[in-house]
Structure formats: structure tokens, C-alpha cells
Write a structure and sequence with these properties.
The chain is an alpha/beta fold. Helix 7 runs parallel beside helix 8. 38% of the residues are buried. The N and C termini lie far apart (107 Å). An 8-stranded parallel barrel has the order 9-10-13-16-17-18-19-20, surrounded by 4 helices. It has 16 helices and 28 strands. Helices cover 29% and strands 26% of the residues. A hairpin with a 2-residue loop joins strand 21 and strand 22.
Amino acid sequence: MKSWNLLFCVIIFSSQLFGQKVDRVDPPFWFTNMNQEVLQLLLVGEDLVNFEVSLDYPDVSIHEVDDIPNNPSYALVYITISENAQPGELALTLRGKKKHKFSYELKRRSVYVQKGLDAQDVIGVQHIDSLDVSRVQDNFEQLVETGYTCIAVAPFNGVSDSVGVIGTTDFYHNRSRFGKIDDMIDVQQFAHRKRIKTMRIEVMNQADNSHRFVQNPPFNSWILKPGSGHYDTTGYLQSNERATSIYDPHSSYIDRDRFTTGSLNTQFADWNHANDTLAEYLIQQSIWWQEVGGYDAVYLANYPDIDQIFMRIWRDRMLAEFPTLFVIGEINVPSAVGQSWFLGESGLNREFSSHLESVTDKELGHAISDFLEGDADAVYRLMTEDFIYPNPNHLVTSLWNDSKEINLSDSAIIKRKIALGILLTIRGIPQLSVPSITMFDNDSVELPLQRYTEKLLAWRRKNEPIKEGRFIQFVPENEVYAYVRDTERQAVLVVVNASERRQSVNTRRFTEVTNGYHIGIDIITQKTFSVLDQWELKPNEIRILELKRKPEVLED
């Protein structure tokens, strides 16, 4: 009996000795002079119930304390940081079963102003396997010398599976192979010094199943549960991946619910963005990464999969803190109309505007693919729908399957060159997947394609009509598609024959834009063509011509 009493006393003493404890705070630090004064702190630790918190720091005070009785591993503390607060260490004291002290740092805000993106930019999506800072910096510099103006990197705190889906593993910490946060900051500061724009790929819709909030959520309501009951016996609901169900006026509730509550992959869990506490946590982590990294743009992966009301709130909060930040929504829908609906400003979404600067125009990639497969009107037809966008030049364009590993034949390389030629000269902000940190070696079958891309990019970087000129297209004739990019002083004519036959081109039909110009110089081959001649185009030939006036030729 005495031994049981002794054991009982030891247990009581141990619980008092190892009472409330804070092991981690999210966000790990914060900043002064932010637009939002109230900051949510998520405490992670042990027995975090029935306590009070106090702090003594000028112009900072406790706003509210919420413990979570159903999960004492977490608690919420809200603090008010006034506009006069100065950087420094906050000493917080937690009083409950015992007293526990912990510190929290306020840092000074960065003076960096986000540059945003426009039609002058070319985005290179960099897939980094590990954060070797010196190698990444060398690669960034090489890419900029090639002609890329903005480098996008996949999330350092995410994981990819075999189908390319990304889920967050920890909102405030890098995965180990990417080093420490300071390593990422070094890369960002290097980019700023070199005048390289950077873009963060943000994953807001799902987490990897290894995430602590999936394994042990602060509130069960943070994880989205299927609402319709149409899921399998394990409780898993596979998404139908039909974003069209959101804007389809005839969409059934079951289809819409299956898209909005279903999961893309059993490896991931979906967030419930309608939960206000989680919503604040997610918004704060976005602000934190933006302030730490100083990104010029944010790419919102799987944008339609995210609660649209939440994303509008998220965008407005980001806009308040970073007025020049350029935000892109990744859209995977089979029409330009659908892409425009998510952009909102065109009026196709009558409920509210998303306040996004841009969405992805993946339909252009499909149209280019169809064009190369024999549909001579494909790109022309898509461009006729640009009236539904407030600013088509802000659309982020890419090729279909651009990031796919390819083993190209000679004929495939020719087709690929045409695709790249169109992408890098037509309206919009082009985005390309770039080689991994080691570029193609001299024995690679893809080296000619790489060299072609580098030549196009280097030329584009200095060409005003491509970056800011008008876009005028001509109805395809004889399976030849042509368009012009021009300013008052310069013009570029692009003529493409993607058929398997030689085609004749009557250049006089272009006189409304070529009038006053004498010749065109092919930017790749440097061959000269008269703008008044009848042209013969070889099968699968693209000509990107800088038009020159006669006086300029004589001066040369």
C-alpha cells in the first residue's frame, strides 16, 4: 500500500514538475510596422490549458488567449503590436500549474519593394533538389544571362509525389535537404543584388499526411471532410478534378461537392479554409514567407481547388502588406472562358473579383500543340477570345507538357522550336521549365533545342515590340499563321508553317503593319527577306523577322 502511495506522489510531483511548456511558436518571429496589428501566435507544447499569459514590452500587449481543451498540445495567443513598436525580444510569461517563460522576437520590416511582373518578363521554373547555396546562385546567374528575368522555385517546405502533386510538410520550416531558412534568405538576397526577380510557388490547398496538423490537428475542423457522403468505405473522397463545376451554371451539387471537398491524392489532406482560425494561420504564414523572402510574385498552385472566398481575403491581406506583389492563379480548365472566370475582373464572375493580377493561360499550350498537329486555326482561334481578359499581356503562358522528360527526335526538335518560337513572341508572360542545376552537356540530344531557346531569350530581352508592342494577327491561309508585334518605331513579323507541305505566302497582305519597312532579318539564321516578295516556307518552318526600314539598311 505504501508503495502505491509513493508512486501516486511521484506521479503528482512529475505532473507539477513537467507542467505547461512551450516548445514552439508559429510564426517563429514577426515584424514591426505591419498593416495588421493583431498577430495570432500558435503555441505548441505540453498541457497548454488553464493558463494566463503576460508580457512587458513597449507598445505590445496581450489581445486574447484561447486554450484548446480538446488538444492541450496547442494554444492560441493573440498579441497587439502597435505602429510604434520597435524591434526586440518580447519576454512572455505563462502562468498555470507552474510558471513558464519564453521569448519572441520582433524584427524590423524589410525595405525591399516587390517589382512584380509584366510582359517584359520570362519566368524560369527552377526545380531544386537541394539548397546548395553557391550552386543555386551560380545557376540563377547563368539563367539570367541566358535571358530569364524571373526565377520561380518550388516550395522548400513541400514534398512532391510521382504525379507532381505538392503538399506542405511544415509551414515555417524547410525540409532538411534544403538547409536552413537562412540559406533560402541568402539565395533571395543574392537575387536582389543581381536584379533577378523571384517567384514563390504557394501551395494552399493541401498538406502532406506527415504534417503535424494532419497527425495531430489543433482542431479537427481544420481538415476538410467530404460533405456529400459520396466517398468510399475508408472515408476517402477522390476529387473529380473538374474545376468547371464551380462556374458551370448547370452543375449538380454532387459534382461541385466532389471537386471542392475531394482530394487529389491519398497522400494528402485538404485544409478547411472556411475555418477562421486556420484561415488566419494560413494568411500569416504567407505574409511571413513574403516578408522573409522578398518575392516579386506568388504563384498559387491549384487555385480553383482553394475556397474562393478565403482566397479573396488572402489576396486583400497580401495587397495591404505588399501593394506591388504580383499574384498568379494556376488554372486547369479546358477553356479561355473558364480561365477568365477565375480572374474575375472581366465580369464573367459576377459574384466577386478575385483581385488577382494574372491567371495561367494553359489553353495557349494546348492550342500550340493542336496547331503543330494540323489545326492551322488553333492559336488564331484562341487569340480571338482575348476580349474576355482585362489585360491579356498579364496572362502567364506555357507549353503543354513543358516540364515532361523528353527524348527528342530530329522532327520533334523542329516542332519544339516552333512551339518555343510562338510562346516567346506571342502576347503574355511566358514560363518555361529550366534544366536542373547542371545544364545539358555537349552530348545531349536536347542541346540544339537548349541553344535555340537561349538565342531566343537573349534576343527577346532586348526587343521592345515583343515586350510591350501591339499584337495583331492574320487569318491563317494555306495553313500558315502570321502575326505582328509592333511599336511606333519597331516591328516583328512571325510567320509559321506547321504543315508537312511547302506553302506559299503572299506578304502583301501584311502591308497594314509592314508598310514603311523594307526587309526582315530572321533572328535565328540572320537571313534577309524582302517584305514585298512572295515567300515559300518549308514544311515546319517558323520565321521570326525583325523588320528594318530602308534608311537603317543603308546606314549599315
